[in-house]
Please model this.
Amino acid sequence: MSIADASSQTRDEAQMIAAILAGDRDLYHRLIQPYELSVYRMAMSFVKNETEAEDVAQEAFLKALHNLANFRAESKFSTWLISITLNEARRWLRRQRTVRMESLDDPPEEGGKVSPALLRDWREIPSESLERKEVRALLQEAIGHLSLIYREVLVLRDIEELSIEETAGALAISISSVKVRLHRARIMLQKELAPKLKQRIPNKRRWLSWR
Amino acid sequence: MALECKHVWDYISEFLDDSLPAATRELVQKHLETCEICSAILDSTRNILILTADDRVFELPAGYSQRLHARLEREIHGANSRPEKPIQNRDILDQD
Model:
């Protein structure tokens, strides 16, 4: 379930938050329950390691709890939680930066064109192929290979299913930046994954037609 | 006016989001009907995005939820275990 699906569930989160702030702190468990997977998944797409992603997710939920009084009811709790999670993930990346020699400085935004992988035919890869660990690993790696500015947009828009506007809001960038980055992210993903997936997933139809 | 392949590639993301102006969309659509390379690129991109968004790609580690709620529980009820320094809102929302 994406964060967009979770936040569209019918429940009055503003009221839950008011109750928590008024002293019913146990209610926080229920408030965050629909977002457990999304926050972990967002963390995981940044830190690339299960234990660290879990730490980042826990920190994000704790920060949200400690700062609940600062939540403004005019925004959605899910959007606010995303900002906190992104910030925790960025904070973690900054701490790692010197260790991994990985720069967080944004690469030139519009520099160069991204071209897709050229293929002549594409046979649909069914989602059942995700039962295979190596296929899941390929997808995780490909997301991890994107630079941060592309990864953020792709995760929010295509995995958490936020709208273009919500993605722009969460990242504090313009709508046109979201569109440009999203386009590049999607094409880069296709470029890396299409040849690999085509090679790994046996094409049964072709095999049958060989006879 | 017919579109060249490399121009069609620029429109793939917006085509998938159905956010192209009608006239452009029509030009792209027309190109896709006759160009097997561009339609394979479009199909593969769409397919890959669907796979990427699947809940199975990033699975929760065993015990994640229990550990999370246990930690929250300590925080919610352990009034004495508050952090020494209150966390400021700007700490969580700043971008530095």
Q: What stands out?
A: The domain at 127-205 of chain A is CATH 1.10.10.10 (Arc Repressor Mutant, subunit A). The radius of gyration of chain A is 20 Å. The CA atoms of residues 4 and 33 of chain A lie 14 Å apart.
